[in-house]
């Protein structure tokens, strides 16, 4: 409201018609402010009139300037940190439990309940609490050391995971945020600023997600628009000009892909950043602290070194998007995450990432300060390495890092067929061949083999192999149909899955329960197989497969046998043509002629012994020749004994196998295997005691079984037969027979040793 400074009178009323707004605002020389002279004169002469001038001020919201009224000059990060809108949360973030962490929460709930009970009752439950806490820590360790790729994706997206500014406030002594792309925009999804670590200045930039819903909306969930990338580009030029090393933090699902962003040049902004980063003359280190999605992450990720937090992920497409493209459903995201190889460990193997920064158990959100200190250590070590390089070496290092990504092979022929669809075509389902057709094909193949045999040429190897593979497929199909008819197909599929899991697990030993399941299903299948509707067809095809195998192996065996006969005849002729052998034979013939006896039975005892001696000497020489060919000559009288020895060995082996396969002993052997595997190389006293007890029980069972089956009596009888053969074969001094008997006895003893070793191996 305007007022007169020298008069207590306030004039009201209408202004003169000639008074303008400029006259009203113009001051006069007599000190009256805001009233024209013409109106003042008229007011003095005439009646007093009052008028008022009012001005309404529009109420607006007070500007929320981040600088507080009581700014602390010694605040951490420097006084300029007051300019940042990012402040520590006053309220503790809400606890979020991921699906795979629910078993841990159950343990934690038990601990809280026991503590509450102890407080209410005043009883001492410290032992139970310590036991539960130990279980919790062990379960936590087991869970977070065997995380699947999709579980790591969920941890990287955890709502409470520390953001870029959280880490920056923990690792820098001073930090000031820099805003704007100098084109009228300031994207909050990308934050840039200058900060110092250990007295060295760096340019920081990174994706910023929100810590709660309101911040996420403000930060656009960490998805930058082109303005954010142009702001980052401006700061890159600034850092390059002043020589500040650049540290980028990557944590984004991807660039914001709305219509407005595309109109403003999202692709061009990302491409410009990629091109510029390869030419910057300062060291660049990128750290993936959450998820790094596609080009939105790469736009600030073309660095000399790419480091990743242990549970961070870096991908070209999210697992959900990949699953929707390849398998037409987002539910296949666990499979897609595994195939994409997006975790820190996999990317280090592929040489895309250069290092892994450890996280605390439970993820970075479990102990943000500890995780930040690990990042700080990694930054300092990496920058110490990069700052030693000169400019050209630095640029070359950055270029080679990306040039070496991926691999290729030379010399592989290129498929000239055009790939119309990315999805692999499914193989057509082959219908089973009828028995008549199979019989015709097998008969034709047999005729070819016979003709090849008559003409002394090699059988058609390619046709044989093709027929064998075809028959194998037919037999497999018949087995599947038989299992389906007996109602065992589902059980077989479940057992196959369990067996595959057991093979993929670190424990190489199969669990006894799984083995029993397999044996039971096998017995049930074998018992019900003759009753299957397709049993006749299955048996017919199996017989044909055996015939083909026999036909394939027969020419090879015949060829080997014929060649061996020729070689033996050749060597026998060489032995008989030797001069010393000829002399012995001629001398023996002369003695027989001089005796004048026409029949061998009429010869005197001395000449008979001489004939036997010459015969043995020739046999010995011929035996040496055969041994050089890998053969063994036996006298006829000893062959029956050897057959008995082999039968006895087979009976021993069969007896031991029957004992081992008995349910009681079999379970003991499996338990012994598990105990040995658990004990490892350095078993404790308890494990040693268990192992020794089981070994004694198994050995005792084997000994009882062998004694019960009468194998000892058979062994004594066999020894008597061997003695008789030695006495009746080739005279008492037959050296060849003795040597053969000695060798076969050693083989027999060896077989017993082999049996014992086999039993011990089965036990251990």
UniProtKB/TrEMBL annotation:
EC number, as in UniProt: 2.1.3.15
GO molecular function, one term: ATP binding
Annotated catalysed reactions: N(6)-carboxybiotinyl-L-lysyl-[protein] + acetyl-CoA = N(6)-biotinyl-L-lysyl-[protein] + malonyl-CoA
InterPro entries to which the protein is assigned, alphabetical: Acetyl_CoA_COase_a_su (IPR001095), ClpP/crotonase-like_dom_sf (IPR029045), COA_CT_C (IPR011763)
GO biological process, one term: malonyl-CoA biosynthetic process
Domain CoA carboxyltransferase C-terminal residue range list: 131-385
EC class of the enzyme, as a word: transferase
Pathway per the UniProt entry: Lipid metabolism; malonyl-CoA biosynthesis; malonyl-CoA from acetyl-CoA: step 1/1
Keywords annotated in UniProt: ATP-binding, Fatty acid biosynthesis, Fatty acid metabolism, Lipid biosynthesis, Lipid metabolism, Nucleotide-binding, Transferase
Any Pfam family matching the protein: ACCA
Protein name per Swiss-Prot or TrEMBL: acetyl-CoA carboxytransferase
Lineage summary: Eukaryota, Viridiplantae, Streptophyta, Embryophyta, Tracheophyta
């Amino acid at each position: 409201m305007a007022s007169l400074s020298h008069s207590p009178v306030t004039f009201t009323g209408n202004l003169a018609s000639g008074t303008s707004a400029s006259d009203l605002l113009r001051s006069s020389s007599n000190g009256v402010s805001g009233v024209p002279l013409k109106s003042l004169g008229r007011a003095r002469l005439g009646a007093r009139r009052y008028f008022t001038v009012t001005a309404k001020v529009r109420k607006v919201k007070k500007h929320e300037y981040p600088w507080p009224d009581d700014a602390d000059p010694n605040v951490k990060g420097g006084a300029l940190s007051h300019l940042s809108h990012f402040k520590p949360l006053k309220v503790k973030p809400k606890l979020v439990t991921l699906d795979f962490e629910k078993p841990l929460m159950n343990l934690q709930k038990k601990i809280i309940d026991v503590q509450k009970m102890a407080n209410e009752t005043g009883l001492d439950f410290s032992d139970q609490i310590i036991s539960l806490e130990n279980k919790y820590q062990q379960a936590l360790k087991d869970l977070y050391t065997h995380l699947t790729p999709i579980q790591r994706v969920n941890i990287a997206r955890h709502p409470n995971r520390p953001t870029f500014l959280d880490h920056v406030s923990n690792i820098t002594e001073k930090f000031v945020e820099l805003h704007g792309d100098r084109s009228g925009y300031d994207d909050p999804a990308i934050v840039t600023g200058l900060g110092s670590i250990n007295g060295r200045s760096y340019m920081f930039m990174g994706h910023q997600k929100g810590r709660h819903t309101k911040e996420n909306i403000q930060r656009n969930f960490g998805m930058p628009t082109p303005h954010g990338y142009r702001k980052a580009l401006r700061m890159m030029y600034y850092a390059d000009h002043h020589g500040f090393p650049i540290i980028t933090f990557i944590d984004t699902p991807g660039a914001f892909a709305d219509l407005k962003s595309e109109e403003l040049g999202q692709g061009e902004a990302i491409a410009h950043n990629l091109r510029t980063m390869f030419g910057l003359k300062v060291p660049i280190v990128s750290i993936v602290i959450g998820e790094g999605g596609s080009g939105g992450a790469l736009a600030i990720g073309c660095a000399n070194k790419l480091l990743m937090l242990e549970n961070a992920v870096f991908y070209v497409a999210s697992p959900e998007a990949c699953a929707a493209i390849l398998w037409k459903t987002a539910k296949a995201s666990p499979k897609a995450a595994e195939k994409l190889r997006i975790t820190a460990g996999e990317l280090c193997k592929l040489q895309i990432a250069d290092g892994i920064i450890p996280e605390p158990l439970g993820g970075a959100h479990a102990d943000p300060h500890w995780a930040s200190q690990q990042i700080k250590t990694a930054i300092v070590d990496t920058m110490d390495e990069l700052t030693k390089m000169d400019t050209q070496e630095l640029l070359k290092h950055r270029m080679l890092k990306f040039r070496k990504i991926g691999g290729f092979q030379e010399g592989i022929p290129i498929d000239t067929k055009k790939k119309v669809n990315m999805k692999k075509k499914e193989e057509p389902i082959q219908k089973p061949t009828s028995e008549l057709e199979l019989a015709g094909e097998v008969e034709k193949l047999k005729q070819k083999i016979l003709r090849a045999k008559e003409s002394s040429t090699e059988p058609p190897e390619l046709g044989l192999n093709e027929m064998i593979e075809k028959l194998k497929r037919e037999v497999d199909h018949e087995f599947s149909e038989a299992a389906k008819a007996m109602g065992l197909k589902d059980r077989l599929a479940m057992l196959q899955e369990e067996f595959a899991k057991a093979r993929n697990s670190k424990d190489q030993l199969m669990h006894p329960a799984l083995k029993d399941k397999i044996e039971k299903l096998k017995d049930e299948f074998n018992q019900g197989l003759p009753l299957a509707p397709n049993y006749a067809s299955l048996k017919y095809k199996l017989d044909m497969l055996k015939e083909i195998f026999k036909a394939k192996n027969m020419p090879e065996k015949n060829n080997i046998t014929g060649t061996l006969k020729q070689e033996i005849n050749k060597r026998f002729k060489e032995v008989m043509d030797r001069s010393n052998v000829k002399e012995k034979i001629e001398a023996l013939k002369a003695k027989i002629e001089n005796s004048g006896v026409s029949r061998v039975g009429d010869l005197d005892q001395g000449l008979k012994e001489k004939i036997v001696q010459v015969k043995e000497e020739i046999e010995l020489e011929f035996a040496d020749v055969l041994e050089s060919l890998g053969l063994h000559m036996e006298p006829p009288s000893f062959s029956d004994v050897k057959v008995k020895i082999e039968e006895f060995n087979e009976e021993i082996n069969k007896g031991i196998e029957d004992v081992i396969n008995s349910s009681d002993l079999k379970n003991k052997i499996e338990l012994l295997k598990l105990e040995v595997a658990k004990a490892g190389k350095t078993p404790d006293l308890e494990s040693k005691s268990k192992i020794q007890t089981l070994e004694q029980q198994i050995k005792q069972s084997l000994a009882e079984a062998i004694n019960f089956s009468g194998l000892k009596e058979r062994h004594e009888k066999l020894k008597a037969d061997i003695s008789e053969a030695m006495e009746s074969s080739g005279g008492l001094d037959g050296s060849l027979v003795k040597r053969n008997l000695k060798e076969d006895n050693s083989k027999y003893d060896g077989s017993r040793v082999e049996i014992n070793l086999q039993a011990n191996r089965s036990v251990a």
